[in-house]
Amino acid sequence: MSSKIPATVVTGFLGAGKTTLIRHILRNAARRRLALIINEFGEVGIDGELLKSCGDTTCGDDSIVELTNGCICCTVADDFLPAMHALINRPEPPDHFVIETSGLALPKPLVQAFNWPEIRTRVTVDGVIAVVDVAAVAEGCFASDPVKLAAQRAADSTRDHDNPLAELFEDQLACADMILLNKADLLDAAERACVADRIRGQIRPEVKLVTAEHGRVDIRVLLGLGAAVEDELHSRPSHHDNEIEHDHDEFASFSLTLPEAASPEALIAHLKPVIAAHNVLRVKGFAAIAGRPMRLVLQGVGARLQHYFDRDWRADERRESRLVVIGERGLDEAAIRAALGA
Q1: Is-contact 281 136, C-beta < 8 A?
Q2: Which CATH superfamily is domain 5-235 in?
């Protein structure tokens, strides 16, 4: 049996449910000492705060590291490796790492970092789990047949750009050992089967598909895959294999603060037309609701907005709504701020 500390990399597109899955892992850790590395996109540490509020003793605040300086696959040397060093050199190192990439991260460059000598001797990548929002896929957000898509693009002489979102999705699937078909409760059986068939046609035969609602999967299925991913990256192709560097300039994000809302429904009614008008990909954050002592968590993918109350506001916190808005390049920040502030 390997003496290395196993690490699970959780990847997935924006709003797929990665943080919900990790909260589920924390609650069912079975006395494992977990360490989390969270890569946040945007100025407000939404995911880190949600995980810190989980309250599970298997992962205290000092075992949660937030990397907020950009995409984790672009800041490996500056941010990720120092964070790993600090955690593995603690007097009581963790039993297991759980690493949540941002929705914009390519998983393969991150896994390659585990081959750095100072990491390779201490940690192994137990598995890469790609979380997929099956409702989004069913709505046609990503191409079901990349080969046909490539042929169509090649035949189109007017095309002057590729779809980076589709490529990102394909890269996440290609690197995965397990694909979590999340939010299955939003589809009927036939729709779920259709999405599973589409994804199965894009992945390696040995990759497992697991259906889930709200990220609830037996932890014995999620951890302990023993894949040692860093040793066989050659079998996981990426659109960016031949690139020295890559960037995410096609995306833009900003954070904003709003006053208390009258109700969750009023807040959502306020957000939906703005999201639709400006092609916003993702909204996430916390909201203050008048007359309610608890903080509202808001997470949205396109026009689909979900919310729940997670904990009481602390005495040292301002009762205000803090949101991160994410979209493609050209997002009209001024117009969105004006519309939401009206």
Answers
A1: no
A2: P-loop containing nucleotide triphosphate hydrolases (3.40.50.300)
